[in-house]
Specification:
Low-confidence stretches: none
Bound molecules: pyridoxal-5'-phosphate
Structural class: alpha/beta
Number of strands: 20
Shape: globular
Strand order of the largest sheet: 2-10-9-8-7-3-4
Number of helices: 14
Helix content: 25-40%
Strand content: 15-25%
Mean pLDDT: 96
Length: about 475
Amino acid sequence: MDLQDRLEAYAASDIYPMHMPGHKRNTTLCSMPNPYALDVTEVEGTDNLYEPEEILRSMQQRAAALWGALDSFVLINGSSGGLLAAIRAVAAPGETVLIARNCHQSVYHGVMVGGLCPVYLQPEVLPSFQICGAVTKEQVKAAFLAHPGIRAVVITSPTYEGICSDIGAIADVVHHYGAVLIVDEAHGAHLGFSDAFPPSAVRLGADIVVQSLHKNLPVFTQCAILHRTSDRVSSAAIRRNLRIFGSSSPSYLLMASADRCFTLLSKQKDALFSAYSAWLDRFYAGAVSLRHLRLLTPADCASPFDRGKLYISCRGTSIDGAALAKRLREDYRIEMEMATVDAVLAMTSIADTDEGFDRLLSALLEIDRTLHTEPVQNTISFTLPEMAVAPSVAERMPHEPVSAEEAAGMVCGELIRMYPPGIPVFVPGEVLEREKLCYLQDAAKRGLTVIGSEGNFPQTVLICKND
Ligand SMILES: Cc1ncc(COP(=O)(O)O)c(C=O)c1O
């Protein structure tokens, strides 16, 4: 069996995808003839993504008009590529960037590649769900006061779980100090098209906004978009960096699926988003009957919330996130986007169906009836680790593996994260804390994916050698 056989078997199965890509394999909404028939390169009439003059230029102009950006750049290597380019476009080696600690690994890769000096801020934590909430303007202001010279600020909004920050207020602070605001809106490409969802950062004062089209819209995997939304950043700097980080052979299939989505949004956004919003209303109304599992709702967040992320906490119940995801898969044929120690997350989109939402809700209600309350077993601490060495230096130092049990107090040589969500718990150069190491070891034992650079966690951790 090769990979295509495996994909065909998955597509033919009765599994409902509560995960990305956002097209949900819904071939009523999106379709394409045999992809081999359309897969071409730069030939007469197909234009060039990096020097667009014709069809790809009008594709990007249509996108800019849809979202309200100055320029929009379609990306074929995800928000990861867009964030690398955005960060390198605004900060030179040695400059300081302020990063919300719950940013995706690609932001940290941007720091390492660019030889930047990061300072971190820890977003507020929602105590009863133990997840990161919004970044506040007060936190950003305090960081500028403590670290004069911050060149750029990177925050994630919405978070994987759907929590948005007050981008307008944060942008005012960032601009007051002469810096640039990059918003990682990887999980928010669908924002701005309906009042039922928070507005997009594109229209709220950010300078660069990066979105994964493939996560929340009906677009092929890897397709993303970078919006330049102010003149504080030059279009030329972005173009230069997109060429550095992007493939020189961008896939026309990916770009075509993005452009088809722009057409769909231009013509049918009202109908699609009102149906989507009505499904979500029904889901949230039905989930009120859950007695043990808890759905994160707008009422739990002080800031705007994207209801399209269905974050279901099983914290303090007799099931953990890994087991809940397994039961949903095996007994109800639903594949979730993410499982954590104490939650599962469904990623939904306009391409979902009534049947999908109904199946998930009835499965959760049925499982909930079999659960009881139990003491919470494992909680991660959100304290910021101590940075002993800059990440770009630590990443290149000689490393050696030590057992996870012995590693506490040593300087980490690799980026360690649970995947998903891909948010680093330790970054190269940080002092390894016992409590967090234990949390990660426990998560790995539960069957969740915890990865470092070499793939040996939790047996060993790469630490920086002193000599
Ligand atoms: C917050 C966040 N930013 C960026 C990315 C990277 O997006 P992509 O997979 O499109 O490269 C992810 C991926 O999960 C993410 O969760």
